[in-house]
Structure formats: C-alpha cells, structure tokens
UniProtKB/TrEMBL annotation:
GO cellular component terms, semicolon-separated: apoplast
Lineage per the UniProt record: Eukaryota, Viridiplantae, Streptophyta, Embryophyta, Tracheophyta
UniProtKB keywords: Apoplast, Copper, Glycoprotein, Lignin degradation, Metal-binding, Oxidoreductase, Repeat, Secreted, Signal
Cofactor or coenzyme needed: Cu cation
Name of the molecule in the record: Laccase
Cofactor descriptive note: Binds 4 Cu cations per monomer.
UniProt family annotation: Belongs to the multicopper oxidase family.
Keyword flag Mitochondrion: no
Species of the source: Citrus clementina (Clementine)
Function: Lignin degradation and detoxification of lignin-derived products.
Reactions this protein catalyses: 4 hydroquinone + O2 = 4 benzosemiquinone + 2 H2O
Length: 551
C-alpha cells in the first residue's frame, strides 16, 4: 500500500437550504465534506485542524483500526477533543477491508454537518466479485435542520423532552423538489442507457432509518458495511444511520422517454415525533448526441415515482435484512466464531430519570427522557477512556463492572415495568485478547418498542440470529446461522425483538458501542468494551502519538 495525506480544515461556511442561509461547521468549506479515496492496504494520514470555537473529533466509521485505536475518534472514548486552534493527525492503515464506509464528527450532534464518504478500492489488480461498474457514485443521505443542531440537543437535554425533528432529509446535501423552496437543490444522477452503475449508499441521517427506491429500476445489493454479500435484487432497500450499502443499478437498454424519481423516507416504529417528509432526487438519462428531442419535449417527459413501504413496515424491514448474507466464498470467507468464550445479554431501550430542574420536565409524566443498555445510562467521562486504560489511571474515570445481563429481568417486550428509571454510570466490559464474544441485544418496550441501529467500533461482527418477542436462550440459538451470516458494523435491533451477534476480540483498545440514532446516544444508549493486550508485541496497543489531544 501507499501513504495518502489529507488535510481537514474545520471551519465555518454559509450554506443556503430551504430558502434559509446559515453558518455551518464544515470540512474545507464543503457540505457534505470531502471524500476519502484509498485502496485496501494503504496508510492514511489525515490532519484535522480546528479553526472553530467548538471542540471537534472525527471518527472513521467502520474502519477496523487494528492496533490503531488512538485514531478511532469518538470524543472522550479514544481521545480528548481537538480544541480551537489545535490539530491532530489521524494515522491508520486499512487492513483487510474494501468497500464504502464514511467519516463523521463524533461529539454531540456535530455530525449533522460534518460527514463524508470513505471509498476503499480493492488492491490493485483485484477485481470486484460482481460486474465491473461503468461509473461509481456515492449517495449520502442526511438530515437538514434550519435551527442549529447543537442548540436543539442542548435544549432537549435541559428540558428532558424530545428534540425538534429535522426540516428535511437530503441526498448529497440536497433536499430536492418535494420541499418548499428547494427544487433547485436537487440531486441529479445522469446516466447512459445500457450501463451498470455502482451506487455507494451511506445513511448519515441523525435520527432515522430510511427506505430508498428508484422508480422503475431494480437494484442489486452487493455489499453492506464494506463487506461483500451474496447479490440479490430489490426494488427498495432499508438503511439505518451508520450503515452503508453498495448496489448495482443497471440502466435501461435504450433511452427511455421518461425521467425517474429516487426517494428516501423514514422507517419508524417508535412513539415520538419524527420528520416524516420525503427527499427526492432525479435519475435522468442523458440525451445521446444523435437523439433529436426538442427541449420542450424533454421538459414534458413523464416522471415516474417509486412506491415506498409504509412508515412502520416492520415486515418489509425484516424480510430485507434476512436477505443479507455473507459471500462466504473461498476468496472472501466468513470467519464466523464457531465457539463462544463470553456471552452477554444486553437490553437496549428508553427510560426516564427524575426531573433535575424545579420546573416540570418535558419527558414522560414530567420526567426526563433517558436511554440505556442493561438499564445503565452511560455517563460520558471528562477524560479519554483509552488514555485512562493505557496509563492505568482509571480511578474516578470508569469502572470495569458492566453487567453481563440485566440486573432485574422483566418481560422485555410485554407490559413495561412501572419503574422506568435508569441508573447512571461509566461502566465498561473487560475482554481478554482474542476472546470470542456472543452478544444478544434485546429491544425493550419501555416507552415503546423501537428499532435501534447499534454500532460497534473497532470490529465487524456477524449477525447470527434475529427474532421477535423475548430471546429464548434454549430454543433460539439452535437456529443461529454460523455459515453465511452477514458481517457488518451496525445492526438494527428489531423493534420488539432481538438480534444475536458474534465477534472475535482481536483488537486491543477501548471500543465504543452505541445506538446510531443520535438522540438515543445523547440519552445514554451507549457503553464501551476494553479489549486487553495479547502476549505478543504485535497483539498490543502501541503508545499514543505525541500530538494526541489532551483534555
Ligand atoms: Cu458512526 Cu460511534 O459512530
């Protein structure tokens, strides 16, 4: 591999959307941010220079960061934030990965404007295990807020209520023609007939899983979270925040007398308010040179629109996710852990805490909204966990006593308990090097069943099972798929159900795990794993780089 250098200047930039101009925090003045392109095996040196008043930290979502945990990026987990006027060089090598990933800010809600694609091409001379695309196009979904997202979340946390929802979804930063005042800000995909395009889809939205479809075109899914999957065709796909999906789009063999909408809108089963608007983009066949059409008749081409599933269509969501299978070929084997050293059962869901202020809070029954794992709402430390772990100075920073299962069992998907209060703590799980881990994540119906896209830093995991209702430790494991389960870094815990994952703890460091619905992370649906060093020098986390930011 080669070494590639990037420079990220974090600075303010005026951007106009929905007839409203505001100053946003950007990378190099771009929105969405610049794309990173590299090959498997390359080393990346990305210098992030902070020119704004906010603290900053950037995460390379899905990059395994083998023995480079200092470059992972979640603020107060692997590093202290980069302060105003300071810089930090993220230094990591891409090992055994190729596909689409993405980068985003990892502090508060700054990722609403700080995000961009990471495109990892295969090593030179190694082809894709599917039709060579004529062109590759990144498509990033986002959420646009007219107000300042930092103000929205800090007000929500103060009053205990749900934050205001976004004003639009976006495709590559553009809301599109279905919003007022937005027709000129429409993403257009211009294609030629009879070609294959590789669409690299990324969901960078803050708080919503999305359905996506292109009218009159079938998509072939070939990759999820930078892992090849067994190809399958679909009209519509589901993509959760944090997830990436590569699809092949075969264009019509001849120039069609029509244009086509592509649309995305949310999949939501929770009780709260959400943005239920739709972002549209346009798939347009470029007029061939010898094709004679007056510009008037181009304007009058019929416009075909896709039909998306209902907002709460869990059966579509389930059948779609069940289709995702690893390639499990000789060249791309699925190394599913067949035996398990450590078993964990985590409940994930919402909860409440007592009102802190004298006034009534805006959460349920005058309380404050919280979210938790095993009923523990994670309290962010004020110094980086990885540093505390590395230097052995963990006293007063974290405790290594995260419970392996809920302290009080209840009927997780039945009538919720009367007491919905969470407890608080900065608790971590400690794993010996190379332990093989099985984790069941169970959604709870406390304050409503909801799908939670859980993201694990530092690893890919295999999704060996999923189901509805309460996980049954006697029956359900007999149905686990240990042959070709999908391998990924973010998985939706089904609404009113559970998911089972397995991974090998072969990467020493401190690794964050959280719901990628940003409001749930803010409410505490997060925790972290410590993976200890192995015996050999190449099984140890190296010391931190000299420019690692300090708190
Ligand atoms: Cu994409 Cu911890 O995040």
């Amino acid at each position: 591999g080669v070494t590639r250098h990037y420079k990220f200047d974090i600075k303010l930039q005026n951007v106009t959307r929905l007839c409203n101009t505001k100053s946003i925090i950007s990378v190099n003045g771009k929105f969405p941010g610049p794309r990173i392109v590299a090959r498997e095996g390359d080393q990346l040196l990305i210098k992030v220079m902070n020119h704004v008043q906010n603290n900053i930290s950037i995460h390379w979502h899905g990059i395994r960061q083998l023995r480079s945990g200092w470059a992972d990026g979640p603020a107060y987990i692997t590093q202290c934030p980069i302060q105003t006027g300071q810089s930090y060089v993220y230094n990591f090598t891409i090992v055994g990965q190729r596909g689409t990933l993405w980068w985003h800010a990892h502090l508060s809600w700054l990722r609403s404007t700080l995000y961009g694609p990471i495109i990892i091409l295969p090593k030179r001379g190694i082809p894709y295990p599917f039709t060579k695309p004529y062109k590759e196009v990144p498509i990033i979904f986002g959420e646009w807020f007219k107000a300042d997202p930092e103000t929205i979340i800090s007000q929500a946390l103060q009053t205990g209520g749900g934050p205001n929802v976004s004003d639009a979804y976006t495709i590559n930063g553009l809301p599109g023609p279905l919003y007022n005042c937005s027709a000129k800000d429409t993403f257009k995909l211009k294609v030629k007939p009879g070609k294959t395009y590789l669409l690299r889809l990324i969901n960078a939205a803050l708080n919503d899983e999305l359905f996506f479809s292109i009218a009159n075109h079938t998509l072939t899914v070939v990759e999820a979270d930078a892992i090849y999957v067994k190809p399958f065709e679909t009209e519509t796909l589901l993509i959760a925040p944090g997830q990436t999906t590569n699809v092949l789009l075969k264009t019509k063999p001849h120039y069609p007398s029509a244009t086509f909408f592509m649309k995305a809108r949310p999949y939501v089963t929770g009780q709260g308010t959400f943005d239920n608007s739709t972002v549209a983009g346009i798939l347009e066949y470029e007029k061939p040179l010898n094709f004679h059409l007056s510009s008037n008749s181009i304007k009058n081409l019929p416009l075909f629109k896709p039909v998306l599933p209902a907002l709460n269509d869990t059966s579509f969501a389930t059948s779609f996710t069940n289709k995702l299978r690893s390639l499990a070929s000789t060249q791309f084997p699925a190394n599913v852990p067949q035996n398990v050293d450590r078993r964990f059962f985590f409940t994930v869901g919402l909860g409440t805490s007592p009102c802190q202020s004298n006034q009534t809070c805006q959460g349920p029954n005058g309380t404050m909204f919280q979210a938790s794992v095993n009923n523990i709402s994670f309290v962010m430390p004020t110094t980086a966990l990885l540093q505390a772990h590395f230097t052995g100075k963990s006293d007063g920073v974290y405790t290594p006593d995260f419970p392996t299962s809920p302290l009080i069992a209840f009927n997780y998907t039945g009538t919720p308990p009367n007491n919905t209060m969470v407890s608080n703590g900065t608790k971590l799980v400690v794993l010996p090097f190379n332990s093989s881990v099985e984790l069941i994540m169970q959604d709870t119906s406390i304050l409503g069943a909801e799908s939670h896209p859980l993201h694990l830093h530092g690893f890919n995991f295999f999704v060996v099972g999923q189901g509805f209702g309460n996980f049954d430790p006697n029956k359900d494991p007999t149905k686990f798929n240990l042959v070709d389960p999908v391998e990924r870094n973010t998985v939706g815990v089904p609404s009113g159900g559970w998911v089972a994952i397995r991974f090998l703890a072969d990467n020493p460091g401190v690794w964050f795990m959280h719901c990628h619905l940003e409001v749930h992370t803010s409410w505490g649906l997060k925790m972290a794993w410590i993976v200890l060093d192995g015996k050999h020098p190449n099984q140890k986390l190296p010391p931190p780089p000299a420019d690692l930011p300090q708190c």
